[in-house]
Amino acid sequence: MRITFYIPTPLRQHTGGLNKVEIDGSGSTVGEALAALWQAYPGLRDRILTEQGEVRQHVNIFVGEESIRYCGGFAAPLMSGTSITLIPAVSGGVTSCSATMVDINDIRETSGDREEFATTKNWRWISRGTDTSWDLW
User: Fold this and answer.
1) Is 67 exposed, middle or buried (0-12, 13-18, 19+ CB in 10 A)?
2) Average pLDDT, consecutive stretches of 10 residues, N- to C-terminus, the chain (137 residues)
3) Which of 28, 86, 112, 113 has the fewest CB atoms nearer than 10 Å to its CB?
4) Which option is the CATH number for 2-88: 3.40.50.410, 3.40.50.11890, 3.40.140.10, 3.10.20.30?
């Protein structure tokens, strides 16, 4: 069985810079697949799980497009070819901000600062000058 793990930028230092990791013989559940991933890349485990072996509060694990929190947790079944995406919460942004109501598809220039809004699923990318951040909404 082959499982593909998608690794976001903040965690790639633990996979040698890889954004996608494919593991063969990963098991038939999310827990077994993650155990195989930890075996190959042990530095990831502590970033995803607590000392008690639970998913950290600000980390989401998706099987396809479904969070494991709602589809059986570590016991959720997997099929060959399934993808698992690891998403840690990332925060950041600008040092000063003014609230503006903007249609999500608008791109506009305001007082020399560039504001771009783009969507990918439920993520919004905001760029103002040199600062960028991702928000889940």
Assistant:
1) middle
2) 92 94 86 95 94 93 93 92 90 55 40 39 47 46
3) 112
4) 3.10.20.30
